[in-house]
Amino acid sequence: MGRELDALDLVDGKRLSIVAGPDGMAAVPEVQAPDGSWWRAHPGDGVAEALLTMLAAAPETSTTGSFTVRAWAAHSVAGERAIAVDQTNESVIVGEAAVVKWATHLLQGPHPAPHRIEVLRANGFRSMPTPWGLITWRPGDGPETLVVNVDGYLPGAVDGWTWAVELIAEAARLPAPRTAAVVAAATDVGTMVAELHSALSITAATASQADADRWCAAAFATLDQAQALSSSETADLLRERRDEIERTLGGLGALAGGPVIEGHGDLHVGQVLQHAGGYVVTDFDGNPVLPAAERVLPIPAVLDVAGLAQSLTHAAIVARRHHEVDDRSLSAVEQAARQAFLKSYAGRLTELGHAGLYDAAPLRAFRLQQVLREIVYAARHLPRWMYVPDAALPMLLDERTIGAP
Ligand code: ADP
Ligand code: MG
């Protein structure tokens, strides 16, 4: 294993270690062998259990060396198993009650999650897995980052790349679309995102010209990268429609003076889990494509709204690839879902007295930026995803904008 940088003892023979390896830093569970040497632990070795026992006994905030422990709702539970899905980090389910996520892909700080989760807890936001606690670590005099996160476990939870894709596919199976279920889901999610933003409204600030210039420059840089990395057909489309695309993205430069909040920052259907009790939002790690210092910055609420709305289109494109659907029906379903989400979001935000947080004008620009980012992401990391932005780009460019933005 890599070079040991720091460690937090949990109980005798079990610890959380920060190690530096060839792929960056990692927070890993370790167990001690009888000869005193430390080994990487795996589900079943009891290190996640030991962590929960430590959290259950800890005060709400405590500091040990470079580690800060926040403990909110933890209790001791036993029995460890690995989470069954593909994921970036390593999560362990303990006692079918908690998910302990070790940051095996440690992000350089500052990390957006601790403050957002704290604000959401303090403001009574319920539509997220119950936060049990978290541990942050500060390297030398560098910025603090998240090393372990513990949430209540939601049995049977699936993310929107499953639930939204299935609902959309089912609604668009026949030439006559049956939108009721997908519209109901999109409405619930719109309500939830409005409640999320309302709970975060305490962080509201005003965008500066420097913020607006940065958003605009980032969108143009993404456009250039997408142009360079996309398939020839998409590259042609980007070239032919360049003026119009630049006009749309250029609108981001006019957002100075508008409201910003410490929003989710990486909102899409994959971050929305469906479980027996409804929908919850997860993963407050911020946008992975941004440099660390920018990931923590406040954003316009519409950026989250655009991310979720555009991901409904992407879910429809995935549905078309993997299910029997009627194409015209699919298009009607996709629009109905997106409109229902936007309407319920705006309606609930107004009901909660926070309409002033949301300016829908840049919705199209941020949706377009999302498509461009996915082109870049697919080209660099996930070529088999490219069919999604390839299909989404012409859909978005040719969408009628009369009436709704
Ligand atoms: P990563 O950062 O490693 O991708 P996530 O936090 O996004 O990890 O979680 C990956 C998956 O684990 C989710 O898509 C979901 O299926 C499952 N998951 C995450 N948190 C919970 C939870 N509290 N209860 C049940 N399943 C969860
Ligand atoms: Mg994730």
Automatic annotation (TrEMBL):
UniProt remark on cofactor binding: Binds 2 Mg(2+) ions per subunit.
InterPro entries: Actino_Glucosamine_Kinase, GlcN_kinase, Kinase-like_dom_sf
Binding sites annotated in the UniProt record for Mg(2+) 1: Q271, D283
EC number of this enzyme: 2.7.1.8
Placement of sequence motif Substrate specificity determinant motif: 370-385
Keyword Coiled coil: no
UniProt cofactor(s): Mg(2+)
Name of this protein: Glucosamine kinase
Organism for this UniProt entry: Mycolicibacterium sphagni
Lineage: Bacteria, Bacillati, Actinomycetota, Actinomycetes, Mycobacteriales
